[in-house]
Each structure stands twice: as structure tokens, then as C-alpha cells.
Amino acid sequence: MLTTFTTLFLVTLTIHTCIELWLARRHLRHIRAHQAAVPDIFRESISLQAHQKAADYTIAKLRLGLIEMAFSIAVLLAWTLAGGLNLLDTLWRASTDDPYLTGIAFILSFFLISSLLGLPFSLFRTFVIEQRFGFNRTTPVLFAMDRLKQILVLLLMGVPLLWAILWLMNAAGSAWWLYAWLLWTSFTLFMLWAYPTLIAPLFNTFHPLADESLKARIEKLLSRCGFVSKGLFVMDGSRRSSHGNAYFTGLGSAKRIVFFDTLIERLKPDETEAVLAHELGHFKLSHIRKRLFLSSAISLGGFALLAFLSAEIWFYQGLGVASPSPHAMLVLFLLAAPVFTFFLGPVSNQYSRRHEFEADRFASKFSNAESLAQALVKLYEDNASTLTPDPLYSAWHDSHPPATIRLAHLI
Question: Alpha-carbon distance 7 to 13, whole Å?
């Protein structure tokens, strides 16, 4: 039955899709139009061959993304309006009378089926596109092991959390959403603390930074910035990809700084220091704290909206589910929210870009702006990041400023 909410959902999804297609078309045309020449600011540092490789790489990912988007829309409609969730709910209700077991089985099977449906795209992205452009180092065995470990982590971490939220929705009264939000926030903070020592080592090997001269240089930077870390580590990112990166992770005494081995091999010591200074800038300028507070506020609003919608039969029926339940509400909300929040992308990205510029200024103050610029150029080239994205597409999709704009602020 086509309800008012069903119509609103379909109209919003159509607008969402049309905007995505329009932006993708602009992006494709813009990259092709600038593929024949390296932008002036990069002309002395990036070859035409590398620039064209980045353009081809971006176009290949964009085309796959469009196919994946069309498939995702079909899957979304199959889960909702075509009755997929309703069928899955009916099957599990017929299998057990325990509402918590029904809810957990329903949600886990939804995620498992969704993961299997998306698997061909992950395989194609890794073993075709990444392989074609020389980035992939993942073997089929390693790829499979990663997926199995992800499932294990989901079961060990996700099932208890899911059970607790379902229990709150059933037993905690009208204020369940507030308790659930507090639980979710606590779980998020726990994961930030636990990730460096409990989860990340399941997927990668971490070794203390062995280069004594680089280590001494970085420790001086940390001292200048007033940053206390649990340690400096190098991660075997080269096992899976030739892409390079650096980050710090963890909370409190568990904070650690991590370099990809590919980044250590590629950058000079002063460039590595500048990249780390940028990452430290995010911490010292309270960007991490601000993002946590913002995320917490958004999740609070999300749980409040979830509580309101959970009592509205039109929400369930409008998305193809006949019988209201806490587990159906969680999945329906997860599916519907991205359709309606898509339009907030440019606002979120603008906020993130402001933080990137601030972190660059911090790095220029505590290290060297020219070294950071040189490091970014190498990372753009090594990661085949397009130097000429369409401005509108980039504003909607990219949390970091375009390369030309970012470099212009540094030099």
C-alpha cells in the first residue's frame, strides 16, 4: 500500500539519486577536461603520467560506485517496499518465541545477507581496480581472513550491545532512548580506548619505530606540542596495499601514534614529521573532542527520533513491515536515515575541511610548511588522488579540501 510516508521516501530517494548522478557526471567531465595537463601548482612535482593515472583511477572507482549505487538502491527497495524485511521477520518469528533471540537473529541475518550482497563489489574493487593500478597487495586468503575476523568482532562486540539495546527498548519505559544513548556513547568511548590494543592487532602487526634518528626527531616534536603517547609504532600496511598513511588512535593512556610502513619508506624524515604534526594538530586543537561531542549530540537526536518513530505504525507500514518491533525499527531506521540525511553532506564536509586547514596551520607552526606540502604531493601521487575534482562533487563527497586549494594555503 502506497502511504504518504512511502511517497515521501520514494520522492526523497529519487531526488537523492538524481543529485548523485548529476554530481558524478560533472565529476567525470571535469576530470576528463583537465586530464591532459597537470595543474600549475603541481607541474614541477607530479608528472603528466602520474596525473593521468590518478584521473583514470578516479574514473574507474566512480564508475564502479555508480553501479554499486544502483544495486544498493535496488537492494534497499527489496528490503523495504518489496517486503524483504517483512519476510525475514516472519521467518524468525516462526522459529522462536523469545523476542530477544528473534531480534538478534533478525538483525544479524540482515547484516550477513547485506554483506554477502556487497561482497562482489569489494572483490572487484580490491582484485580488479586496485590490482590494475598497482595498489593491491591483498591475497584472496588474507581477504577472506579479514572478513572472518570482522564477523568475529561483530559477534563478540555487537551481540551484547544489541541485546542490551533491545532490552532497554522493551523494558526501560518511555525514557529507553536516553538510556540507550548513554549505553551507545559509553560503548563508543570504550571502542576508541580498546581499538589500538585489542582490535587493530587482529588485522595488522605493529612494531615500535626502529629508526632511532626519526624516533628522536618525532619525540622532540611531541615535546614541543605537549603530546604524551603510549608509543610510536609502524604498521604493516604494505600487506594489503601500497597506499600510505599515518594516524594516532586511542584515548587516555592508550594513545599511540601509528605510521604505515609504506609512508615511512616513501617520505623523508622532515616530511614524516610534518605529516605527524598535522595529525597532532587535530588532537591539540580539540578537533577529536569536538567531533566526539558532535557525534554524541547527533546520536542523541537520532535515538530521540528513533523513540518517536517506534510508536508510529505509519513508519513501519510505509517501509513494508507489517508488525512493529524494536528489531525491525532499528533496521528500518538504519536503512531510511541515509536517504534523508544525504543532504547534510556538504555541511559536514565544510566543518571537516575547516579542521584540516587548522591542522595544516598547526603543522606549519611546529614543523615546516614546505615539508608538509612536499609530503602531501607525494601522498597525492602515491595514492593516485585526483588533482582536479569537480568543485561541487568534492564539496558533497570529500571531507578534505581539494589538492590545489590545500597546497595553495601552505605555499
Answer: 10
